[in-house]
């Protein structure tokens, strides 16, 4: 009984993670600015707005290596992303040129990810100095906890394998993506950067997958069975069974009485 209860809880967590992952990401500003603003607010809450404004004005740009990008978005798994985000120990400052990588955490089942896909697919042409990669956050959960990924799609900019900032808008367009990168790298998008029909075809899919998730189905079946089992142990179930048996006995008695007459 105890094992069933623990297993039931575990499956409920799995289902919750499936249902809540695909959502509009929470707005998160530059990581360094957030830490600074939070620290200052603990000393004097009335200076929060002033601190945030000041941190935005003094935002330090990262220096990206030229021509570090690729012609198109690279779809990666967890192992490949670990290699791409390898940190060079001799680079300790944002002022030192290093590889800049923009990572899209997405899910092929999520409609919000599909909306962002064509605009993200167009970024390699607009920013040839920045590598664009995408990882299925539902299939590879290793980075979700490490980087605070609570919903997809989520975009994160890395410099020398270190997180710099998260995308800070609720809409997903090439224009907003470009402003985000320009804000943190100082690199302007290439002229005449547009989303083409080819960007809707991939590499990141723009059509939500409709295939069944076998593990999610098994989880729901198990929950239904557990619910049915515990319901049979309830007083309500006992009352239902007793009522049916009582009605059945009365029907039999009535039928026998009519037969005797």
Automatic annotation (TrEMBL):
Pfam family, one: Thioredoxin
GO cellular component terms attached to this protein's record: cilium
Signal peptide range: 1-22
GO biological process, any: cilium assembly
Top-rank lineage group of the source organism: Eukaryota
Membrane-spanning segments: 214-232
Keywords, comma-separated and alphabetical: Membrane, Signal, Transmembrane, Transmembrane helix
The Thioredoxin domain, residue ranges: 59-186
Protein name: Thioredoxin domain-containing protein 15-like Protein
Species this protein is from: Tribolium castaneum
Gene, per the UniProt record: AUGUSTUS-3.0.2_05372
């Amino acid at each position: 009984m105890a094992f069933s209860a623990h297993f039931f809880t575990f499956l409920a967590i799995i289902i919750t993670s499936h249902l809540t992952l695909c959502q509009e990401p929470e707005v998160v500003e530059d990581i360094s600015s957030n830490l600074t603003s939070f620290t200052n607010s603990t000393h004097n809450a009335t200076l929060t707005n002033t601190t945030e404004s000041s941190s935005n004005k003094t935002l330090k740009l990262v220096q990206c290596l030229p021509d570090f990008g690729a012609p198109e978005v690279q779809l990666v798994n967890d192992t490949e992303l670990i290699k791409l985000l390898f940190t060079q120990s001799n680079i300790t400052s944002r002022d030192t040129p290093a590889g800049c990588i923009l990572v899209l955490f997405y899910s092929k089942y999520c409609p919000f990810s599909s909306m962002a896909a064509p605009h993200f697919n167009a970024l390699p042409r607009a920013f040839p100095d920045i590598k664009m990669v995408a990882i299925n956050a539902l299939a590879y959960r290793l980075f979700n906890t490490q980087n605070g990924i609570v919903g997809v799609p989520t975009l994160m900019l890395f410099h020398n394998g270190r997180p710099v900032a998260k995308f800070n808008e609720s809409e997903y367009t090439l224009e907003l993506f470009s402003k985000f990168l320009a804000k943190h790298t100082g690199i302007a998008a290439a002229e005449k950067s547009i989303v083409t029909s080819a960007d809707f075809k991939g590499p990141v899919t723009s059509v939500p997958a409709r295939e069944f998730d076998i593990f999610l189905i098994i989880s729901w079946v198990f929950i239904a069975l557990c619910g049915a089992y515990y319901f049979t142990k309830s007083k309500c179930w006992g009352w239902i069974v007793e009522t049916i048996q009582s009605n059945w006995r009365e029907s039999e008695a009535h039928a026998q009485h009519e037969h005797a007459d």
